[in-house]
Amino acid sequence: MTHATLPLTDALRQYLLAHSLREPPILQALRAETTKLSAHAMQISPEQGQFMQLLIQLLGAHKALELGVYTGYSALSVALALPETGRLIACDINTETTAIAQRFWQQAGVAHKVTLRLAPALETLNALLTAGEAGSFDFVFIDADKQNYVSYYEKSLSLLRQGGLMMIDNVLWQGRVADENVQDPDTQAIRDLNQRVVADARVRISLLPLGDGVTLAQKC
After folding, report:
1. With 0-12 CB in 10 A as exposed, 13-18 as middle and 19+ as buried, what is 21?
2. How far is CA 94 from CA 3, 48, 73, 77, 99, in A?
3. How many C-beta atoms lie closer than 10 Å to residue 155's C-beta?
4. Which of 63, 65, 132, 159 has the least CB density, counted as fewest CB within 10 Å?
5. For residue range 163-179, what is the model confidence (pLDDT) as tens digits?
6. Sequence-distant (≥ 6) Cβ neighbours of residue 165 within 8 angstroms
7. At 188, is the pLDDT very low, low, confident or very high (cuts 50, 70, 90)?
């Protein structure tokens, strides 16, 4: 037994992957293509994608929302886990990287489940709320620009149903959130979000040291 989370060495992570990861070939191919890009570190880890799939299935989710698509690994993970009638709204502003995402969604046979909204995420969130979709989403994944994290959280919480789950990425920000010498706007925005969530009685929460840190927030 241990009272703290084990440090994840390279050897231990490889053991974890060997004894847990069941990554389909289509996701492996997308991950391999993304590594060719200069910003490939923006892609979530494969174990995080698999964890998202498990959450989707445990929730029995049919309707999901993603803020920040990049090349579509997380969206593809979610779409594969959704039922045939499931729906994912995926928000991004980059036409080049989302073109890669769309190609892989087509190859995986899940493009009919995904609606890509190429617009600033706050515009899409406001449009969904205006359209009367508050309280209708089962799952939200937030992995977009950090300085809007608090706004994304509040609007996404309005869109979630009671018992719905929000997953927020990069909440440990490679450890910078715990370094008081780091005061850049992105880091401070994540600190503000983390402080808001931990004090928010509207949600049940857990912050996990998975990938770059993820917060799970279930709407009460």
Report:
1. middle
2. 43, 23, 15, 20, 9
3. 21
4. 132
5. 999 999 999 999 999 99
6. 55, 59, 138, 139, 140, 216, 217, 218, 219
7. very high
